[in-house]
Amino acid sequence: MPISEPRRRLMRQVGLEFVRKKVEGGGHRSTNASLSLTSMIDFLVVTVVFLLMTFSASGETPVAKGLNMPKAENAIDMMDAPIVAVVGSQILVDGAPSGNTRSVEESDRMQRIDELFNILKAKRELWKQTHPNKDFPGVVMLQIDQAIKAVVVKSVFQTAAFAGFPNVSFMVNKLPAAGGGGG
């Protein structure tokens, strides 16, 4: 047997043209990829359901654990503002610890809460730096348990006003609208 140049020899003797093309490497893959329509629809349904479950159009925020907010009939949707929560004797600003109310409860008189004041003042300054050509709205949301003493509520309210947030809104649970017109 004479020496010849190396090449593919497997299945050379088969007479079928399409087999020879495949063996010689002449076969091409289809340019159209197939995708199962069922799998794609399942994926899209799961994605849409996930997005619907996590989306909140009214800006609902989670309520601090152990907080029982008061109820009201006349309420508006949430707005973009710092949230000051008072849970027990702890004060939270946007979920971060920001002081406590023990000194107010012990003295039983209104007073400025320094840690809360400093954090709100810093938030006001940051807002002014990030929005240099706009007027500061000065809105803060209070998320306060309905069992908290009035002197504590007044102190938190006054501290927010001293820090530059004179527009205070209270977070409440909305009661269903009273039905029937009477008659």
Concise structural overview:
The protein is α/β, with parallel strands linked by helices and 183 residues long.
Secondary structure topology:
Elements: H1 17-24, H2 37-54, E1 71-72, E2 83-87, E3 90-93, E4 96-100, H3 102-107, H4 114-130, E5 139-144, H5 150-162, E6 167-170, E7 173-174
Parallel strand pairs: 1-7, 2-5, 5-6
Antiparallel strand pairs: 2-3, 3-4
Helix pairs in contact: 4-5
Indicate the structural class. Answer: alpha/beta
Sheet with the most strands?
Answer: 5 strands, mixed
N-to-C SSE series?
Answer: HHEEEEHHEHEE
Quaternary structure: single chain
Biggest sheet strand order reads: 4-3-2-5-6
CA-based shape: elongated
Number of strands: 7
Which key phrases capture this entry?
183 residues; alpha/beta; two-stranded parallel sheet; 5 helices; elongated
Overall description:
- With 183 residues, the protein is of the alpha/beta class.
- The protein has a domain of 104 residues.
- 34% of the residues lie in helices and 15% in strands.
- A hairpin with a 2-residue loop joins strand 3 and strand 4.
- The longest helix has 18 residues.
